From TrEMBL:
This is Spermidine/putrescine transport system substrate-binding protein. It is found in: Periplasm. Gene3D superfamilies: Periplasmic binding protein-like II. It comes from Peribacillus huizhouensis. It comes from the Bacteria.
Length: 357
């Protein structure tokens, strides 16, 4: 019995010594707790070479997961099954996450590269001092289309999409705010409208678009458009930019009735386990050359002013993807409409999808 107790105590002692050595090793690298970092980002939204470089430079192993809508991201974070160290939500979801106490305040002293961000993208209303979020990419929602496939037809407005000639030609992005927003905008209502009557009207109007809709898709929209399987895609500006860089026939337009201006930002969720590593990752992504490489790869618009000089001029000077403030001022940023209203948007979107079947 004595022998058993002694063996047991020895095992415990060895475990404690091993644990403290590992901890000390981690701390000497400047990273608290575990030496892995779990990053949760939109699909097709990073140059994976940069993840490898970050891993090499820091010794931190990155576990990388993706989502394709803010709503999907939020559900997963609320469920808490996986804990994420860095996530990349859009502005209205950040507002919601701050209010629900789901984010950790950032330590700006660990983010010296924050100086690279253009002031135009800092201190925005959803996070006035960037206490919780750091700009990653920004853009608009619009229509990418192939005029040649449409016999030279020019599209300038949401309402153009209801044209009978466009039967089975439209790909919609799989996002509740984007699609319901398009219905609202086409009726000249705000993207943040919460009037139940207006929302029902928007849904009814979207239902009448059904014959023209080919599919509601995620990132595969790029391949479908590039392969000419559809002539029109409702999507985010960066996706349009990527497809257009491969096919010059395509064009991108921000519809005349108005549209959405969005900002995606890096945040650290409350459940994060590697907070130092998360800061190191955010700071790494803010480096001018890293941001330039990332931007060239994903084709979205960077808020990193210092990165612009490392990017091809034709990219930076393309006003469709770097619209001037005079244009963006006319667009609407999604607001956090509160739990009930966001649920209504989701329900209407779901009903609209069911209606198609
Ligand atoms: C990248 C999606 C970007 C999301 N595939 C726009 N908020």
């Amino acid at each position: 019995m004595k022998q058993l107790v002694r063996t047991f105590l020895t095992i415990i002692l060895v475990s404690i010594v091993l644990l403290s050595i590992t901890n000390r090793l981690n701390q000497s690298q400047g990273f608290s707790g575990s030496n892995t970092l779990t990053v949760y980002n939109w699909g097709d939204y990073i140059d994976t070479d940069l993840i490898n470089r970050f891993e090499k430079e820091t010794g931190i192993k990155v576990i990388y997961e993706t989502f394709d809508s803010n709503e999907a991201m939020m559900t997963k974070i609320e469920q808490g099954g996986t804990t994420y160290d860095v996530a990349v939500p859009s502005e209205y979801m950040i507002d919601k996450m701050i209010k629900e106490n789901l984010l950790i305040p950032l330590d700006h002293s660990k983010l010296p590269n924050l100086k690279n961000i253009d002031e135009r993208f800092l201190n925005l209303p959803f996070d006035p001092d960037n206490l919780y979020s750091i700009p990653y990419f920004w853009g608009t929602v619009g229509i990418v289309y192939n005029p040649e496939m449409l016999g030279g037809m020019e599209i300038t407005s949401w309402n153009d999409l209801w044209d009978r000639k466009l039967r089975n030609e439209i790909l919609l992005i799989d996002g509740a705010r984007e699609v319901i927003g398009m219905g609202l905008n086409s009726l000249h209502y705000s993207l943040n409208d919460t009037n139940p009557k207006h929302l029902q009207e928007a849904k009814a109007k979207l239902d009448t678009l059904t014959p023209n809709i080919k599919a509601i898709v995620g990132d595969e929209n790029k391949l479908l458009l590039a392969n000419r399987e559809a002539a029109i895609g409702i999507t985010w500006s960066g996706d349009a930019s990527e497809i257009m860089s491969e096919n010059e026939d395509l064009d991108y337009v921000v519809p005349s009735e108005g549209s959405n201006l969005w900002f995606d930002n890096m945040v650290i969720p409350k459940t994060a386990k590697n907070i130092d590593g998360a800061h190191a990752f955010i700071n790494f992504m803010l480096d001018a050359k890293v941001a330039a490489q990332n931007t060239e790869y994903v084709s979205y618009s960077t808020p990193n002013k210092a990165a612009l000089e490392f990017m091809p001029e034709e990219m930076v000077n393309d006003e469709r993807f770097y619209p001037a403030p005079e244009l963006t001022d006319k667009l609407e940023v999604y607001e956090n409409l509160g739990k009930r209203n966001l649920a209504t948007y989701n329900e209407l979107f779901l009903e609209f999808k069911m209606h198609r079947k």
